[in-house]
Design a protein that fits this description.
Layout: H1 18-26, H2 29-38, H3 47-66, H4 70-77, H5 81-88, H6 96-107, H7 109-117
Helix pairs in contact: 3-6, 6-7
Length: 118
C-alpha cells in the first residue's frame, strides 16, 4: 500500500462526519482505552518516554514564556545550550534541580534575571 502524505492546515482542521461523531459519542472510556491499546500505530508510551515529553514541555514552556530563542534563553539563564536543545527535543530528561529552576523561570523570569545579575 502506498504512503499517502498530506500537509496539515491549522486553519482548516479535518472534520468528523456525523456518523463518526455518533460512533465517538457512543464510546465509553473503557472502549476508548481498548481502541487505543489495539491501535498498532499508537503504541503505549514507556515511563521514560513520558518523562522525556514532560521535561521537554517544561523547558519549552519556560523558554516561550520568556519570549527567547534557545540560544538567548541558554545565555540569559546560564544553561548549556546543547543541554537545553536536547531537553527541548526530548533527547534527555531534566534532573529535579533543573526542573525546579525552569519552573521558577517560567513563573518569574524577571526575578531570576535580576538575581543572576547580582
Amino acid at each position: 500500500m502506498p504512503t499517502i502524505r498530506f500537509a496539515r492546515d491549522a486553519d482548516h482542521p479535518p472534520r468528523f462526519t456525523a456518523k463518526e461523531l455518533a460512533r465517538l459519542d457512543a464510546m465509553t472510556p473503557e472502549d476508548v482505552e481498548a481502541a487505543a491499546r489495539d491501535d498498532a500505530d499508537n503504541p503505549p508510551l514507556t515511563d521514560r518516554e513520558l518523562a522525556l515529553m514532560t521535561s521537554a514541555r517544561i523547558v519549552r514552556d519556560a523558554r516561550r514564556s520568556a519570549g527567547l530563542s534557545q540560544a538567548q534563553f541558554a545565555r540569559r539563564f546560564r544553561i548549556n545550550h546543547a543541554r537545553l536543545r536536547d531537553l527541548e527535543r526530548g533527547r534527555s530528561k531534566a534532573d529535579s534541580a533543573l526542573t525546579a529552576y525552569l519552573k521558577v523561570i517560567a513563573s518569574a523570569p524577571d526575578t531570576v534575571i535580576a538575581a543572576l545579575a547580582q
